[in-house]
Structure formats: C-alpha cells, structure tokens
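User: Teach me something about this protein's shape.
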Amino acid sequence: MRDDQLMAKPFHLDGAAIAWVRETLKRLTPDEKIRQLFNLRIGGNEPEMLKAAQAFRPGSITRMPGPDWTAERHIIAEFNAAAPVPLLVSADLEGSRMSIPGGGEFPNPLALAAIDDVEFTTVVSEAMAREARQVGLNWSFTPVLDINARFKSAIVATRGFGSNVDTIERHALAQIRAFQKLGIASAIKHWPGEGFDDRDQHLVTTVNPLSMEEWEAHFGRLYRAGIEAGAMSVMSAHIALPAFIRQHNPDAGVEAYRPASISRDLNERLLRQQFGFNGLIVSDATGMAGLKAWSTRADYLPELVAAGCDVILFADDAERDYGFVAAALEDGRLSWERVDDAVTRQLALKAALGLHKPTPMPAVDVAANRQLAEDAARRAPTLVKDTQALLPLDPEKHRRVLVFSTGIVFPFIPHPVPFALPEMLRQSGFEVTMADKGVWVNPTDYDLVLYLFGEETLLTRGHIFLDWLRLNGDFITAMQRYWTDVPTLMISFGYPYYLYDAPRAPTYINAYSTTDTMQRAVVEALLGRHEWNTNSPVDPFAGDEQARY
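Assistant: First, the predicted structure itself:
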C-alpha cells in the first residue's frame, strides 16, 4: 500500500501512524507474517487451549466473552504479550443473546428496525460499543447489510434490519458511525449480499440471483453507503454473484458460482476497483460448507488471500492451516507481495484504532445500559394482528393458560432453553400448564392457549418453520387447532414469519429477541401496561393474504 492509501479513508493515518505501520511490517519475519493472516476463534477459558492459541501468535482472534470483564481483559493482555503486534479482537455485536454477558440485553437488528428510530439505534450501538471495549474487543463483524427478501431465509431473519433498503441503510450507517467513534471497527457483511437465496452459506454456497441493475439498486447502494460512511472492513462471504462474473465472461460456467471469498473478480475488481474500498477484507468463517464444498482446505485457504482477503477467519488446526499457506507461498500459488499487502492493511486498521499506542477506554454505565435495553424491549414488540380482540390479557378472564413451546433454540447451546415467560405469567396471577407432547387437549379445560417460539437467526438450520409435529408430539395432535374453541395467542421471540404455517392464528405478536428482558416487556404489554408497536420491518404475513385476517 502507498502512503496516500494509508492516509485515505477509512484509515486516515497520520505520519507517525504510517511510520509505525512501515517499521512494524519491516521487522516481521516471514513466519510472523503468515501467522498475522489468521483470526483464531477463542471460546472458553481452558488454560491449555489459551496457551496453545497464544503460542500461535495470530494477527487477530474472535472472542465470545464471559461475564467477568476483568478476566476477559487479562486473557487478551496475555495474547498481546505473546504477539509481535497488538491483536484485533473481534466478535459479532448483534445484540440479543450475542450481547456481552453481564451487560445490557440489547435488541437484535430486526428489533431496532421495528422501533425504527435512528437516534435510538445510535444510542444503543454506542452502549454496545462501550461494553465491548470493556472486555477488550475492538472489531465487530457488523452491521449486517443483508436484505430479508426471502422469508424462508433462516440465516438473515433477525440478524439484519429487515427487508426495506431505506431502513437497512439508515440503521446500518448509524451503527457503523457509533461503533467506530468509540473504537470498534465495523465489518459490513455479507459481501456481495445475502437474502435473495433462502439457503444458508453455512451449508451451501448461496447465490445472489439479481441482475447487476437490480443488485446495484439493493446491495450496491448499501455497500457504497457503508464505504462512504467509513466502514473499516468488509466481510467477503461464501456467496456467488453470477451476474457480475458473466458481464466479463458470458461462458463462465461453474466459475459464475465461485464464492466471493475466493473470487478475485468480486473482491478486487468489484469491491476495490469499482467501489473504491480501501479498507480491510476479512473472509467469512473458513469452516462453512459454502466454502468447503468448493475445494480442499489446502487449496482454498491460500486462495482466500490470493483473491483479496486480508484475514483468514478461523482455523481447523492452526499449525496445519499455516502449512497450507506456507506451501502455496513456496510453489507460487500465493505471492509474498499479496501477503505484505494483506498484513499492511491489518496494521493500518490497528493503527487507525490506536492499538499501537496507549488509548483511553470509554466509560461504561452498566445500570444505564440495562435500563436502555429495557426501554428498547418495551418499544420493539409488534402486534401483528388481534382479530379476536383478545388483548389485554386478564388473569381473571384468562386465568387457565395452556402453553405449547419448543423452547429457545440457540446455535451454540445443544438443547433448547426454557422460556421464562410462563413463570412471569404465574407471578401475575395466571395458572400456567405446559402442554405434554402427544396428549389430547380438552379446550374447555383452558381459558387461553399460548404458543411460544424462540428461534432467532440460526446457523446450519437450513430453514425455520412452525413444526407442528415437533410442537405437539404426534401425528394426530399435530393437526389440532384450538383457536376455534378457546382464545389463542401466538408469540414469536425470533423468526417473524410463523403466520405462513399458521395463517388463521387469530392473535400474533413478533418480539424478535429471546432475552429475558424482552420476555418481561412482552408480559407487561400483554397485561396492558404499555402500548404495542405496530411497525413491522418485514412482511409478517409472508405474502399470504389470508394471514391478515
């Protein structure tokens, strides 16, 4: 990189910072440069695991922090003590169950889009950034610029700001500015854009099927805006953009479906040359089937860097993966010039964040953040419809409640987590019974049937849907619908499209996030203690007109 590139957006480095970048690159050995390319995923506090990862001396790590913030900072300090260069420390700051433990349970992006108050999104994002800095983070793989265009997409769902490009742009830009003002670099994702293919790149290379004219009006607009706003990095995903490839090669064949992460055309020609992006490009996770299905790991790891990615996200076996990159440098598939460019961009990002010098940590008021999260939770839940005039609930009129639920599904926990909401209702004077699987229900035994769903955006799930068989337990009970005999309420604390599988459900609420904070807010609204939101950031009827009635 030239000095003028280091001085330009998004790095804006001064002379002293540029000198640090140049001097640091010069003193790094070839071995250290290769290791700088890797971002290792670090979960838990097991000493031997941490020691091995620190010994690898990566350029960056991704950390899922625990509730002891002092311990988190100590772990990162140990990584930095072992490393030749201060580390980028990344996470997915997406709110909800990805909030920092011990801090505020902030809403996810879809909930913020439902509130649709850009100033509020800014305040929430600043609070998230302050907490992230307290645990040692300095890089977030957010905001998500994906468009919730295909309702069956389980991988977009609650991670993005909905289906309207205007809404996505407003809130994403607010989050970029808020994060980066407080020392958290943003990585906008998932380049070149997800949401028009309802599959999951964790499982398959997904395809952005838009023509380039359509793509420019959607994702092109969003990425140009993010770059103009100063986003410091872009995550190149395992998503194909055939229309762009065929512009230059009409007979591309299978090459039209090459994942962006290993596509020089999409990273260098489109993102860098046409869009003028000067920042850092990080690959999406290298263990995903959307990449693994394309070629062997020995081939695609060095190809990521050769195709324009400056950071390799995650390692299966760090030393083995190191060997794959070293072998490609030896046989010429990867050049040292490209490695030096990638490491220089990493160093430039680190300098832009002030990691090369003492930098004050922004203050954080955890009590205020928890109150902010509660304020958000009160504003987000959306009453989609109430055709039976059920609400508000009354513990005298609706005292006997039967609850059907498959629990809260979270990709990093092996089994569903029970909802807290049933106990909250009990504490408010209701008699709550959890439905047994496969047991026939006599509607006259209950005053209210309540369905609770807790599936936010999920990884490796394929699709989210209302699985009546799993919910009820057997073939016969799966076909029962109680709302013709007893008042019925359906609430989703995640995926917002369950009406597609239950269009005649008479009362339906989208609450977007599964946290206890959100569950408490929903109970308060159910009891008439505050107003419902009526703004939906997506079409909750999934295009089915009968679901409106």
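Now, about its shape. The longest helix spans residues 118-134. The mean pLDDT is 96. If you'd like, I can walk through any region in more detail.
User: That's plenty for now, thanks!
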